[in-house]
Amino acid sequence: xxxxxxxxxxxxxxxxxxxxxxxxxxxxxxxxxxxxxxxxxxxxxxxxxxxxxxxxxxxxxxxxxxxxxxxxxxxxxxxxxxxxxxxxxxxxxxxxxxxxxxxxxxxxxxxxxxxxxxxxxxxxxxxxxxxxxxxxxxxxxxxxxxxxxxxxxxxxxxxxxxxxxxxxxxxxxxxxxxxxxxxxxxxxxxxxxxxxxxxxxxxxxxxxxxxxxxxxx
Length: 217
What we know:
Elements: H1 3-13, H2 25-39, E1 45-52, E2 55-57, E3 63-72, H3 76-85, H4 97-108, E4 111-113, E5 122-125, E6 128-131, E7 137-144, H5 157-178, H6 192-210
Antiparallel strand pairs: 1-7, 2-6, 3-4, 3-7, 5-6
Helix pairs in contact: 1-2, 1-5, 2-5, 5-6
């Protein structure tokens, strides 16, 4: 899932093929951030990051825990990185979930999981990863709170939840905008009240889902 996917879904649901939708890209992107902030306490997503060194700063990613660490199997990894990602040092979380998963599976053919015990051979202290006895490039599989939409697994209930919550937030915004205008004497009517009502009900239902009242998180 990408931000573009979410924007397209929202605009389609609002009938952009038939009417003007007063929501710019930046507006919907802001709604996406709000939805991810709402989801964050309830969802942990996998993020794969390639890095190197014995001490690795992961503050950009705010990891909750390290799941696995992979090291190079042989020198093939360098040429594979340049071929598949246009260079080394590529962060893998800024693509769609499926693209990232495909990349991850490609890496697994060339990387071996480090058979070290957590706490003995690698430690996560705060947002810094310390590797003991290994200095080359590694692929880190970590759990994070969602920061970008690609952190949310495609085709999961959470993917659908984000789209629906962004739609509800956008309806709320449009309802407030349209409520500021008067169309007396026009053959058209504004649906401000309907949008605000739908938004309130949909947000309440979606937030209840996160609290486990509809599906178990």
